Amino acid sequence: MSAIFRLSGSLKDVVGGKDEYIIEAGHTVREQLLALGIVPETVAMVSVNGAMETKDYVIQDGDTVRVLAVVGGG
To answer: Which of 3, 28, 73, 74 could form an SS bridge with 63, CB 3.0 to 4.6 Å?
Structure first.
């Protein structure tokens, strides 16, 4: 059972520039972020198969998960 986990924006920099991972299903988005070394609070939005979800969503087989970073400026 696997899923696609995609990072965008500054989140790619946290993991060395890679933006797409094939991951094992059955974990929450939050757990997957932590496994990649990403602080969940730096994520602004989670989309699963085109629908908005929370970081507590349990990733299912065949899902495509996209996470977007918090954008700051000033």
So the answer is: 3
Could you tell me if 59 and 23 are in contact, meaning their C-beta atoms sit under 8 angstroms apart? yes
In-domain check, residue 44:
yes
Its pTM stands at: 0.91
In a domain, 74, yes or no: no
pLDDT of residue 71: 78
> Which ranges of 1-74 does DSSP label H, i.e. alpha helix?
11-14, 29-35
Instruction: Please give the tally of structural domains in the chain.
Output: 1
3-state secondary structure of 23: strand
The domain of 60 spans 2-69
CA gap 50, 74 in Å, rounded: 30
Q: What is the pLDDT of residue 9?
A: 85
